[in-house]
Amino acid sequence: xxxxxxxxxxxxxxxxxxxxxxxxxxxxxxxxxxxxxxxxxxxxxxxxxxxxxxxxxxxxxxxxxxxxxxxxxxxxxxxxxxxxxxxxxxxxxxxxxxxxxxxxxxxxxxxxxxxxxxxxxxxxxxxxxxxxxxxxxxxxxxxxxxxxxxxxxxxxxxxxxxxxxxxxxxxxxxxxxxxxxxxxxxxxxxxxxxxxxxxx
Length: 200
Hints:
Elements: E1 2-11, H1 35-40, H2 44-50, E2 57-63, H3 64-75, H4 84-89, E3 92-96, E4 108-112, H5 116-129, E5 132-137, H6 140-148, E6 154-160, E7 178-185, E8 191-197
Parallel strand pairs: 1-5, 1-6, 2-3, 2-5, 3-4
Antiparallel strand pairs: 6-8, 7-8
Region (Disordered): 13-32
InterPro entries: DHFR-like_dom_sf, RibDG_C, Riboflavin_Biosynth_HTPR
Protein name: Dihydrofolate reductase family protein
């Protein structure tokens, strides 16, 4: 049985929008993009803690926008980086109502996103088929939907010590009781918390 693990960067005021680059996601006029990468590039301890998984990744799960942007960026980057081989070979499942097969990157499988019940059923099916973690990166709209449906099992949240004042928040009206699996605070104040959703 697999578990859905959401890995997210979040500001102190809960924003998750455009952590990597200034032009990553400017929806709503957001102009503070790159806020996480600027801090993490100077904090290798926090970066290591954020990506210190348990080695049980069985698949990755993306929304359309994050899949095209993040996977496309790293697989199209000619510079050596630690993510290329993982993103190339790990099975990737992409929820979209507009993309069609074949998807542009290797080992990618389309989940039809046209109906909420279809997405819920597909992700629940993945949890039964895949052993280990089904890792989500970014994919804010999808992760909020799956959290509300009770399908996100664990979170790795890298909390960056910055207040952005605007931008799309990670959590939106879905209460959760969380159990701390482990946590790390870097000397620069970045907090990496691994949490498990407490099921009642």
